[in-house]
Amino acid sequence: MDVRIGIQDSPRELGFETSQSAAEVEQAVAAALGGQAPLLRLEDVKGSVYLVPAAALAYVEIGSEESRRVGFVA
User: Fold this and answer.
1) Choosing a second label site near 29 at 20 to 30 A (CA), which of 6, 13, 51, 69?
2) CB of 50 closer than 8 Å to CB of 43
């Protein structure tokens, strides 16, 4: 699933693919925005960990869980 994170006062966004489900990502974002966690912690499919301060979150876009098709569709 693709995740894109907007960070306040930054012109670029953070984008990566994760193996976590949409519900897990949404739960982590809700915990960070609700004050239960000071950081939003997500991991990508390659094992890299992304930590974003909850106060700096502008938006989080959670993509679809469908895998991308390769090739031509008839």
Assistant:
1) 69
2) yes
Q: What is the pLDDT of residues 13-55, one digit of tens each?
A: 999 999 999 999 999 999 999 999 999 999 999 999 999 999 9
Query: Does residue 7 form part of some domain?
Result: yes
At 57, which CATH number? 2.30.30
- State the pLDDT at residue 66: 65
Contacts of 24 (CB under 8 A, 6+ apart): none
Q: What are the angstrom distances between the C-alpha of 60 and each of 70, 71, 72, 74?
A: 26, 29, 31, 34
Check if the beta carbon of residue 62 is closer than 8 Å to that of residue 56. Answer: no
Burial of residue 42 (number of CB atoms within 10 Å: 0-12, 13-18, 19+): buried
